[in-house]
């Protein structure tokens, strides 16, 4: 009886189960906030936010945000390089075909027969002189071309002794002969500094100066519309023929005076370099005329 009373009088909170509930020793998770993600993560579980981020990465790849423009730019760059490569291949094919047909020849451009490159072959200190001589040669060709219709117009308009057949003959023969006999020699002379080329130029360049004087005077029967042809045309009232003949006369005067000027310069250059006629004869005897005309490597 006494023991039962003592049990009733004891503290009900001394029960071990009650103490563990009071001091939190049973299950701390019951008191934790159900919205506390840190506690969930601490337990090793995967948070909802992390799962959502991974899902977003799978549903929305990063290429749709930042790398799509970069990818397009790479494709444009590749396409541009392919176009440039194709263009280079076309140029190489054209160059190869050109070399197959003509070798190294590059002049005249419409049908290359010889190799002509002042910048590549002529020494820098002589390039300006050579380029001006080249322009004078082109002026000669242009004047001969202009001369043909001028003389034809004068013949049609009954200017006395207008010889258009002579004008056509000049146009056919003078351009190739002048190129081979005096233009090419001075070109090769400045390039290689051989006496032979200079003295060939002096010989045939001198003949060309005499022809220029002949063309400038321009007798009506000669086929050159020079100063006398101008006077004859205007004297007979043929104003159109006279006007055309003035242009032709100026062309003959300009190219003749220019060639005379550079003839003197080339002669001085020849003297400064010490070239002699004896050296020219020795070179001709050693290499022969064939090597000169074919521009052999020995000359």
Structural class computed from helices and strand pairing: mainly alpha
- Count of extended strands: 0
Form type = flat
- The low-pLDDT segments are 1-8, 24-35, 39-52, 55-60
Q: What's the total helix number?
A: 12
What is the share of helical residues? Answer: over 70%
Summary keywords:
transmembrane, flat, Scamp-domain-containing protein, MFS_trans_sf, disordered N terminus, 299 residues, membrane, 3 domains, transmembrane helix, mainly alpha
Protein model, in words:
- The protein has 299 residues and is mostly helical.
- It folds into 3 domains: 12-59, no CATH class; 63-102; 118-293.
- Helices cover 74% and strands 0% of the residues.
- It has helices at 2-9, 16-23, 37-42, 48-59, 67-102, 118-121, 124-156, 164-192, 195-217, 227-235, 239-273, 277-293.
- It is flat and about 85 Å long.
- The termini are far apart.
Quick overview of this protein structure:
It contains twelve helices and no strands. The chain is mostly helical.
Topology of this protein?
Elements: H1 2-9, H2 16-23, H3 37-42, H4 48-59, H5 67-102, H6 118-121, H7 124-156, H8 164-192, H9 195-217, H10 227-235, H11 239-273, H12 277-293
Helix pairs in contact: 7-8, 7-11, 8-9, 9-11, 9-12, 10-11
Organism: Malassezia brasiliensis
Keywords: Membrane, Transmembrane, Transmembrane helix
Protein name: Scamp-domain-containing protein
């Amino acid at each position: 009886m006494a023991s039962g009373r003592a049990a009733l009088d004891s503290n009900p909170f001394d029960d071990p189960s009650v103490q563990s509930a009071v001091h939190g020793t049973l299950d701390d998770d019951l008191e934790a906030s159900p919205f506390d993600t840190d506690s969930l993560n601490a337990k090793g579980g995967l948070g909802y936010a992390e799962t959502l981020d991974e899902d977003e990465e799978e549903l929305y790849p990063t290429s749709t945000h930042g790398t799509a423009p970069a990818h397009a730019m790479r494709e444009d760059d590749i396409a541009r390089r392919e176009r440039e490569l194709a263009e280079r291949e076309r140029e190489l094919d054209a160059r190869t075909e050109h070399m197959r047909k003509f070798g190294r020849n590059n002049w005249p451009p419409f049908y290359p027969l010889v190799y002509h490159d002042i910048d590549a072959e002529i020494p820098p200190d002589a390039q300006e002189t050579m380029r001006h001589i080249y322009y004078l040669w082109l002026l000669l060709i242009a004047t001969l071309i202009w001369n043909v219709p001028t003389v034809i117009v004068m013949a049609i308009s009954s200017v006395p002794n207008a010889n258009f057949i002579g004008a056509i003959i000049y146009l056919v023969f003078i351009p190739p002969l002048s190129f081979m006999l005096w233009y090419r020699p001075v070109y090769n002379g400045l390039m290689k500094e051989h006496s032979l080329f200079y003295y060939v130029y002096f010989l045939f360049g001198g003949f060309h100066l005499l022809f220029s004087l002949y063309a400038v005077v321009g007798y009506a029967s000669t086929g050159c519309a020079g100063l006398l042809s101008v006077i004859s045309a205007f004297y007979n009232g043929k104003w159109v023929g006279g006007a055309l003949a003035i242009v032709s006369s100026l062309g003959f005067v300009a190219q003749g005076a220019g060639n005379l000027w550079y003839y003197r310069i080339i002669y001085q250059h020849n003297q400064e370099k010490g070239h002699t006629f004896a050296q020219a004869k020795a070179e001709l005897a050693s290499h022969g005329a064939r090597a000169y005309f074919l521009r052999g490597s020995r000359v």
